[in-house]
Design a protein that fits this description.
It is built from 5 helices and no strands. The chain has 170 residues and is an all-alpha fold.
Length: 170
C-alpha cells in the first residue's frame, strides 16, 4: 500500500537525519578530544540537520496524532465526542501547519547565496529539505483530518518491545 510506504519513508528520513546529527556530534567530540581539531561547520550542520529531522518527525506525529498532549477532556468523552474533538484539534493543527510550510518555502526562496560560516556551504538545500518535511506534515495533517471525518482514525504501529505491563516482572 502506498500510504504505508510513504509513512515508512517519512520515518526513515527523520531517523536518518537524527543519525547524522549523532554521528556529526560524536565525531566532532572525538576529534576535538583526541586531535584538538573540530569539524568545520559542525554547529551549523547540526542545527540544519536538527531542523530537517524535526519537520520530518513532526509529519509523523501529526499524522498519528501522537503529539504531547493532555487528554483529560478527551478521556472523559464518549467515542463520538472524542472524534469531534480530534477533528477540531486536527483542523487547528492544519491551520498552523499549512501557513508554516508556506512560510518556510518563502524562507527557502529568499535564502539566495547565503552559506555556512566556515565552508560557505549553501543553506538553500538543507532549508529545502526542512521545507519539504513541513509540507509533508501539512499534507499528512490533511489526510488525518479526512480519515477522522470518515471515522477512520490512523493509529501508530504497535511496538510492544518497549512496553511493560503492570505486574510484569522486570
Amino acid at each position: 500500500m502506498w500510504a504505508r510506504r510513504l509513512l515508512a519513508a517519512v520515518e526513515a528520513t527523520a531517523a536518518f537525519f537524527l543519525l547524522l546529527i549523532a554521528l556529526l556530534t560524536a565525531g566532532n567530540v572525538l576529534l576535538r578530544d583526541l586531535l584538538q581539531i573540530t569539524i568545520p561547520d559542525w554547529y551549523d550542520g547540526s542545527r540544519m540537520l536538527q531542523g530537517i529531522a524535526l519537520f520530518w518527525g513532526l509529519a509523523l506525529a501529526t499524522y498519528y496524532g501522537s503529539h504531547i498532549c493532555v487528554d483529560i477532556v478527551w478521556e472523559n468523552l464518549k467515542p463520538a465526542g472524542r472524534r469531534v474533538l480530534d477533528v477540531i484539534a486536527t483542523t487547528c493543527t492544519l491551520a498552523l501547519m499549512a501557513p508554516m510550510a508556506w512560510m518556510i518555502w518563502q524562507k527557502v526562496f529568499s535564502t539566495g547565496t547565503q552559506g555556512t560560516n566556515d565552508l560557505r556551504l549553501p543553506l538553500v538545500w538543507p532549508y529545502a529539505l526542512a521545507a519539504l518535511g513541513a509540507t509533508v506534515a501539512a499534507v499528512l495533517c490533511l489526510v488525518r483530518l479526512l480519515l477522522l471525518a470518515g471515522d477512520r482514525a490512523p493509529t501508530p504501529p504497535l511496538d510492544t518491545s518497549a512496553e511493560i505491563e503492570v505486574g510484569d516482572e522486570p
